[in-house]
Amino acid sequence: MPKRMPWWALALLVAGVLTPPMGWAQTSADEAAMLPLAERPTLLGGPNSPEQWLRDRGVGIDASWTGFGQALTSPSSGDNSMQGGGKLNAKFNFDFSKLGLWQGFSASALYEQKWGHGANGFNGVLLPVNTQMYEPKDRDSAVSLTFTQRFSDTVSLTAGKFNMVDAASATPIVGGGGINTFWNLNFAAPPSGIVPAYITGFSLSVKTEPANYTLMVYDPKDSQNDSGLSGWGKNGINTRLAVQFPVKIGGLDGYQTIVGAFSTQDTVDLADLPQIVLPIPRGPSTRVDVKGNSWYLGYNFQQYLWQNPATPTEGWGIFGQAFIADGNPNVYRWFTNLGVAGSSPIPGRSRDRFGIGYFRTSFSHDLTNSLKIITGATIDDESGVEVFYNAALTPWLRLGLDLQYIRPGVRGQGNATFAGMSMQVKF
User: Fold this and answer.
1) What pLDDT sits at residue 107?
2) Is residue 372 a contact partner of residue 403, using CB atoms and an 8 Å limit?
3) How confident is the model over 356-378, as pLDDT tens digits?
């Protein structure tokens, strides 16, 4: 049974979202009038709302509930029952400059609560087909907390516990995070083998005229279930450098990014996994090696093909990503995706989002050879196509449809089709 939301998280959500702040009620009736329900950006927000009153004074609250339904529709030999679940994401942002406490300093806390599950792992599909119903994967809830010091308009430093799936939601055009855009992990938060979903460390961002630089230094372990501070760096250090080049083609925004990551963590040689798992007789020639210095090098791009001149973030275009990795100890060899996504081109439906994309992921040869010895299963590249349409019924109520056709990584399983529907309420 899913765990209940902690009392303190529920108290924060209720107090922050539902309770009018002191002073707000003292405004005149005209000043306190809120937008009609169908026009509000969030269910309880908008001009003259308690939420906007708090945001103007440095306390931002972004909370949403998303319900998911997903089923394996083919082949018919699998579990074809509808898999249901839901996800609460509540983010609290504190701008200490507006609070009159510390110029350029801010904090962000994200609480996640998950109920139920998706169709992840069905029919031999190795990577999640529903990212939000996969993370957090060990527990039903997780908390992330970061602090940012902005030194100028071009330099900032952020430290704390990062949710990298949430960070992917800021990706232009393709979006990310698996809520209002693609559900599959290969689009929502593409795997790398070196960047866990929850990391503890710091990120330095520097913007210059030709390029934007982001350097991250973090502990290699996934810190989902703890703060990540205990034993930080004991088993190695990971670094990730992204260099993004903003470009314009035909007056339309675009981005070209080169990304590299390196890990000093020592891990077991993937080729030696059978010697650990299976009862192989030990002898002088039996040895389990340790490998370190894992790496990957990648490239990604986003390019708008249409933008709203009045609202540049509203538009649609093409995107793509590719990386190569060491293949041992990294569990991946290479990865690529390509697609079209963004705001709906249908007249009058600019708040809607759409996308169609293709991905292919290749796993470590040493890992797949070891798994064949241990389990008897043969692992191939996993590939697939996903198409979605996410309709804004109102600015705060969204209905999403998702369809995926995947060639599973486990050989011998038939190609799988997953159909899903989601409903999101932004509070």
Assistant:
1) 98
2) no
3) 999 999 999 999 999 999 889 99
Residue 8 burial (C-beta neighbours within 10 Å; 0-12, 13-18, 19+):
exposed
Res 140: pLDDT? 86
Cα–Cα dist 203/49, whole Å: 34
H helix or E strand, kind and range, residue 421: strand 416-426
How far apart, in whole angstroms, are the C-alpha atoms of residue 17 and residue 390? 25
Q: Please work out, in degrees rounded to the nearest 5, the angle formed at the alpha carbon of residue 189 by the alpha carbons of 183 and 191.
A: 120
In sequence order, the 6+-apart residues with CB closer than 8 A to the CB of 86 are: 65, 66, 67, 68, 114, 115, 116
Beta strands in 264-396 (DSSP E): 267-268, 290-291, 294-308, 311-325, 332-343, 353-363, 382-394
Q: What is the phi/psi pair of residue 149, to 5°? A: -115, 115
DSSP-based three-state secondary structure for 61: strand
CATH T-level topology, domain 7-426: Porin (2.40.160)
Instruction: Choose among 360, 297, 298, 295: nearest CA to 329.
Output: 295
Could you tell me if 111 and 163 are in contact, meaning their C-beta atoms sit under 8 angstroms apart? no
Nearest alpha carbon to residue 296 among 256, 328, 338, 255: 328
User: Per the structure block, which two tokens stand in for 320?
Assistant: 């793509």
What is the domain partition of the chain in residue ranges?
A: 7-426
The structure tokens listed for 351 are: 């708040």
Q: What are the tens digits of pLDDT across the range 281-303?
A: 555 555 667 877 899 999 999 99
